[in-house]
Each structure stands twice: as C-alpha cells, then as structure tokens.
Design goal:
Layout: H1 2-22, E1 41-42, H2 56-64, H3 66-82, E2 91-94, E3 97-100, H4 113-123, H5 129-149, H6 161-177, E4 179-199, E5 202-219, E6 225-228, E7 234-245, E8 291-297
Helix pairs in contact: 1-3
InterPro entries: NTF2-like_dom_sf, Tim44-like_dom
Signal peptide: 1-29
Pfam family, one: Tim44
Length: 298
Amino acid sequence: MIKHNWKKWLACACLLVLCLALFKEAALADVGNSFSGGGGSSGGSYGGSYGSGGSFFTFLPFVMSPSGLIILLVVIAYIAFFTKQKGNPNRRTMGGVNSYSSPGFSSNIGLNEDAVVSRIKENDPNFAAEPFKTYVKEVYIQVQEAWEQKKWNQIRPFESNALFNVHSRQLQEYIDMKQTNYMNRQNIRSCVIADYRMDGEYEVVTVKLDASLLDYVLDDETGKLIEGSKSEYQHRSYRLEFLRKNGVKTKAEEGISTTNCPNCGAPTEVTSAGQCEFCKSIITSGDYGWVLNHYGKW
C-alpha cells in the first residue's frame, strides 16, 4: 500500500507544479473573499485579498525545458494510469458519511458524524442531526444570496456580531468599487457534522459543506467580467462553525428556523444590534440558539 501511494503522491506533486507553471491562479471571491487566498472569515480574524499568479509566458521557458517536458510526461502517464482503474473511486463511505474525491472537494475520510452527534446529545438530548443540517444549508444559501444582492442586513439573525461586522466591511468594498460578486446555480452536494467542542462559555459545532457554484465578479456599470467565470463551475468544501452558549438546549419537537426568533418564535425581524424587535432579545449572541461564527475554506 505504501509503495503504491508514494507513486500516486509523486504524480500529484508533479501535476501541481505543472499547473502552477502553466496557469494563472484563478481570482475567486465568495462570501468574505473566502476563496481568494485570504482564508476564511471568523469572529476573531479574517482575510480577503484577491489571488494573483504569474503569466503563462513567464513560465514558458521552464515548460519548454527538459525538466518541464519530463513533468508533462509524468502527468500524462498519471492520468492514463488512473483513468484505467475500474469501479467508481469517487464515492465511498466511512463512519456513515459519504466521501468524495472529486476535484475541488476535500475528502470526508476520517469524519464520523454519528460519533460527533452522540457527543452533542450527551449535553443536549433533543439535538438531531437532520434538522440541524437543514438549518445549516438554509443559512449557507441565505448568506450567499445576501452577499450577491448586497443586502447584508438579511443575514443579521444568523451571524455572530463579530462575523457580521467583518462581512459587512468586506461587502462594502464591493459596493464602493461598484462591483457585484455573483454566485449562481448553487448545488449543495454534502453536509457533514464534523466536530464538536467546548470553547470557554460556548459550544461549537463544525460543519463540512460541499457545494458547486458559478462564482464571478462583474462591474456594475459596464457589465465587464472582472474575476471568475460565468460557465466554469467551482467545487468547494466549506468550514462553517456554529456556536451557542453552554446550557442552551434544543426545544423538544421543535426544529431550527431561519424565519422565526429562536426565543419568542415571532417572524425574524432583527435590529442592527442583533435584537429581536418583538421580544427584545439579542439573538445573535448564541444565548438562544446556534449562530454562524466562522465561514471559510475547509
């Protein structure tokens, strides 16, 4: 097994080197510029600079050199060998969780959702995986849509104060530059409850979400494509972290809603300070339910 794997990893390394030499790094954004090379956005720190790369012509002498040609031959041999493998290696199961090896998706190998959920239920017997994952997917979609529409107040009920402020500042940069980051044709492929931990006075649940989408930036006035592609799908694995105060429990026989206050149940109308306009509770602090506190790459 070891002898077989080192050949595979060597070929992967060669493929990576060649790709770096041949192609300019794609300038991608996503919410909070999470996939542009600056990392994810969280309550404590964040990044958001656009990715950059060299021109093809800069690397042309290398590609035409003996070393470059050798790498190219290795890559071709790698592709030829692994495309002959029988079966469907792109999908397998471990610990009850689907694992993908498709380009762009990180593997789920090593994740055991059942074990994580069991740990959560020790503190919260009414917690259930499927309602929570439905909530996670709804929050993810609403975050993406609000970012594209530049209406970030729509996200106020679902993000912690710190994360909301970070994303608001990043979105304002697009508004000031008169640009729009479009994220179309969302397709959530997988959602896995990956980890659970105590962090001070909070419980934190980490979710791995795989999704495909079109991600590109247009100039608002001219419609000119600035970054990304309108036709090339991006396949991404996200790390989403949700927190709530220790001691908060899931209410029996009640789901998690993105349309109602987790405290009073009234339709979600939240002030800029994260306060429910009906019961006056601050619902973005984790005192009443799960709120998103980290959004970034897996």
